[in-house]
Amino acid sequence: MLPLKAEAQSLYDTDYTQWLETTVAKLRHRDYATVDWESLIEEIEDMGRSERRRLERNLIVVLLHLLKWQHQPQKRCGSWAGSLVEHRRRMRRAIEDSPSLKPYFAAIVVASYKQAVKQAMAETGLSLEPFSVECPYSLAEVLDDEWLP
C-alpha cells in the first residue's frame, strides 16, 4: 500500500479532476492531515499566474486592435470593434474581481505594447516606423469602450 503522500501525489498526477474533488471533500470535512498540501499550494500559485497571464493576453489583443484601428482606418471592421468590446470587458471584470491586479496591469503595459506592435506589423504588413515607441494610450483609454484612436 502506498504511503498517504505518495497516494495523493499519484492521484494528482493521474486524475487531476478526481484529485480536486477529493481535496475539496477533505477540506470541507476538515480532514487536514490527509490533504496533499504541496500540490494544493502549487495549484493556488498557478491560479494567480493564470489570472495575470489572462489579463496580459487580453491587453495585447486590445492594444493590437487599437493600433490597427489607428493605422489602418480604411480596414476598420466590426470584428475589430467587437473584439475591443469583448477584451476590454474581460480586463475590467478581472480588475473588478481582483483589484490587486490593477498595479500589475499598469506594470505590463510597456511589454504588452511591444508585443502588440510586433503582431500589428505581422498582421498589417506595416513597418515599425508608423508606430509610437511608447504606448500612446492611457490605461483609462485602453479600458474605455467608448474610446477609439
Describe the structure in your own words:
This protein has 149 residues and is mostly helical. The chain folds into two domains: 1-35, no CATH class; 49-143, no CATH class. Helix content is 72%, strand content 0%. It is built from seven helices and no strands. It has helices spanning 4-14, 16-28, 37-71, 78-97, 101-107, 109-124, 139-143. Helix 1 (4-14) crosses helix 2. It is elongated and about 60 Å long.
Quick summary:
The chain has helices at residues 4-14, 16-28, 37-71, 78-97, 101-107, 109-124, 139-143. The radius of gyration is 21 Å and the shape is elongated.
Layout of SSEs?
Blueprint: H1 4-14, H2 16-28, H3 37-71, H4 78-97, H5 101-107, H6 109-124, H7 139-143
Which tags fit this structure?
single chain; 149 residues; mainly alpha; 2 domains; elongated
Secondary structure tally, helices:
7
Mean pLDDT: 91
Uncertain runs: none
Number of domains: 2
